[in-house]
Write a structure and sequence with these properties.
Layout (H helix, E strand, L loop, with lengths): L3 E5 L3 H12 L3 E6 L10 E4 L1 H7 L4 H8 L1 E3 L1 E6 L4 E6 L7 E5 H10 L6 E3 L3 E6 L4 E5 L4 E4 L1 E4 L6 H7 L4 E14 L11 E5 L2 E8 L3 E9 L5 H4 L3 H8 L6 H7 L4 E8 L6 E2 L2 E3 L2 H4 L8 H23 L7 H16 L5
Parallel strand pairs: 1-2, 1-12, 2-8, 5-14, 12-19
Antiparallel strand pairs: 3-7, 4-7, 5-6, 9-10, 10-11, 13-16, 13-17, 14-15, 15-16, 18-19
Helix pairs in contact: 1-4, 1-10, 2-3, 2-10, 3-4, 7-8, 10-11
This protein binds flavin-adenine dinucleotide.
The site of flavin-adenine dinucleotide has 33 residues, from helix 1, strand 2, strand 3, strand 13 and helix 9.
Length: about 350
């Protein structure tokens, strides 16, 4: 029987799920509230587990060609003394840094042109024994058999279905930016994190002679003083850290800021016809650099499960709890095929 999968959210998780479902020949539509492809923000690291999941689509190769590869991250003190290197074992390959905008475009371009509809903000979903109905901010509606909620950490679908505000503030706040690498003095293009009493500072080279930086400082939730911070304030704070931090901040014109939060673990990633993936399902803090990588793993595993279980998932009745449990076990079994190591 013809099954239609609706995906809400055209970020990493949503687009990757669409790529895999299209690959299986399934009818899939993505709805994204942004008005065009691309993603705001700075850089991102993609690790070998995500590349492995993307291998069958040729996308891993494109990330490798478009990214900047290194075999690990150096951790040093604010004075430049080495603490340790977090290395990726040789057999797994490199970590790749890439601009978020470029990564999102790369996924978007791997899909047939009419797959993603932009400027469509989901405001509510309703499900019954046959279908799931999605309502958008412009008054329009869409019907499908299965809904993949890939609408990120602030998922309104999670909020609606669990009836909970599930954020947990992590105790620190973060600024990010990008500068030309020509401004970086005394630095050998390493992926590097610098630890000191005034905070953590990350420097990651990007392709096209750019550098992505981030600064992390312990804080209170929604601290108004940090919300007002300018690049000058960061220069004052990190001015006595080792180069290239002072020169990177001096060269910075723009930056983004957000408190770091995760979410309370969900009891189930599937609620009847709705399956949560990526940050909508399990947003965590960025310390492992794995949020998008896990979103990619979710996407390909979820797509395989949907293909395998679409009959029971799209039956004439709600999947009862024990079926959801079986589905979750199958999810884990398929996931194991993608595990690195
Ligand atoms: C500081 C920082 C650094 C990080 N660094 C890394 C890293 O190096 N490596 C890594 O793997 N991960 C990293 N992450 C985590 C990573 O950014 C996320 O885990 C990843 O973006 C999750 O992808 P997603 O598709 O689930 O969600 P998102 O990327 O948030 O995408 C959700 C999409 O849904 C859309 N949307 C939301 N609501 C609606 C709605 N109602 N209707 C329609 N569309 C909607 C949004 O516009 C968005 O496009 C970092 C995170 C932070 C905060």
């Amino acid at each position: 029987m013809h099954k239609k999968v609706i995906i809400i959210g055209g970020g990493t998780a949503g687009l990757c799920a669409a790529i895999k479902l299209k690959h299986f020949g399934m009818d899939v539509k993505v709805f994204e509230k942004r008005t065009k492809p691309g993603e705001a923000g700075a850089g991102i690291l993609i690790a070998p587990n995500a590349l492995k999941a993307l291998e069958p689509f040729g996308i891993a190769d494109r990330i490798i060609r478009a990214g900047y590869g290194k075999d690990g991250i150096q951790i040093v003190t604010d004075k430049g003394h080495k603490i340790m290197k977090l290395s990726v074992p040789d057999e797994y390959g490199n970590l790749y840094s890439i601009h978020r905008e470029e990564l999102n475009l790369l996924f978007y371009e791997a899909l047939p042109p009419d797959t993603v509809q932009y400027g469509k903000e989901c405001v509510r979903i309703d499900q019954d024994e046959q279908h799931v109905r999605i309502s958008f901010h412009d008054g329009s509606e869409e019907m499908g058999d299965i809904l993949i909620a890939a609408d990120g950490i602030h998922s309104i679908i999670r909020k609606q279905l669990t009836n909970k505000d599930s954020y947990r503030f992590a105790g620190y706040t973060c600024w990010r930016g990008i500068v030309p690498s020509s401004y970086c003095t005394d630095w050998k293009d390493e992926f590097m994190e610098i630890w000191g009493a005034k905070g953590r500072f990350g420097i990651i080279p990007l392709p096209n002679k750019q550098v992505y930086w981030y600064a992390i400082v312990n804080s209170r939730k929604n601290d108004a003083r940090f919300a007002r911070y300018t690049v000058n304030d960061l220069e004052n704070r990190f001015g006595n850290y080792r180069e290239p931090i002072p020169s990177v901040l001096k060269a910075s014109r723009q930056m983004t800021h957000r408190d770091i939060v995760d979410i309370i673990p969900m009891e189930n990633f599937s609620l009847h016809r709705v399956l949560f993936i990526g940050d909508a399902a399990h947003a965590f803090t960025p310390n492992l650099g794995q949020g998008a990588c896990q979103a990619i793993e979710d996407a390909v595993v979820a797509a395989e499960c949907i293909r395998k279980f679409s009959t029971s998932l799209c039956g004439v009745r709600y999947a009862p709890q024990e079926e959801s449990g079986g589905y979750f076990q199958a999810f884990l079994d398929i996931w194991k095929n993608y595990a690195v190591g």
